[in-house]
Amino acid sequence: MKTPVSLPDVAAETDHRGVALHAVGIRGLRLPVLLRTPAETTQQVIAIADLSVDIDAQQRGAHMSRLVEALYEWASEPRTPAEVKTLLKTTRDRLNSRSARLQMQFPYFLQVPAPITGTPGLLDVEVEWSCRLNNGASYAVSAFVFPAMTLCPCSKAISDYGAHNQRALARIWLQTRDHLPRLPDEYLPLVQQSASSLVYPVLKRPDEKFVTEHSYENPRFVEDVARELALHLSEREELIWYRVECESIESIHNHNAFAMYESPKRK
Question: pTM, whole model, 2 decimals?
Answer without folding.
Answer: 0.93
